[in-house]
Amino acid sequence: MPRAYAEVLDRARRRLDTLDWYPAPVRLKRVRLVVAPWFFRVPPFRRFDGYALHNTILLRLPPGAGGASDDLVTHELCHVWQMQHRPLAMPLSFLRYGYGRNPYELEARRAAAETAG
Ligand SMILES: [Zn+2]
Question: How far is the C-alpha of 16 from the C-alpha of 2, rounded, in Å?
Fold first, then answer.
């Protein structure tokens, strides 16, 4: 993973470390940031610019100016943090609640908003 990607992940981690919403801080050890524009051409994912899997954050655009913002990476890393504590319940919640009113989605939005510089 490029050094710049590790740095953007670390900035997001430091933002989440100011929140105490889960018993343990987010662990970055196995988390990778991958720029994968092809993923966001697949119809169900077209509306997203980022997507979190358990240990991988997919981004439509590279981080940095004109690309993925720190806010977006913080939002996606919050989803990773959620899955570190609720590895099944969090992903399954999207089947139950959908997207817009999903409590984990709202929490990730709040994480980015409340920690914005
Ligand atoms: Zn989200």
Answer: 22
Instruction: Please give the distance, rounded to the nearest whole angstrom, from the Cα atom of residue 20 to the centre of ligand 1.
Output: 19
| Distance from residue 1's CA to the centre of ligand 1 (Å) | 22
* Cα atoms in the Cβ-side hemisphere of radius 13 Å centred on 101: 2
Separation CA 94–CA 48 (nearest Å)? 14
Query: Which pLDDT does position 18 carry in this prediction?
Result: 98
Angle at the Cα of 55 from the Cα atoms of 29 and 22, rounded to 5 degrees: 75
Averaged pLDDT for residues 56-62: 97
pTM: 0.96
Q: What is the mean pLDDT of residues 24-30?
A: 97
22 closest CA partner among 106, 72, 82, 95:
82
Q: CB-based contacts of 77: which residues, under 8 Å, 6+ apart?
A: 9, 12, 13, 16, 26, 31, 52, 57
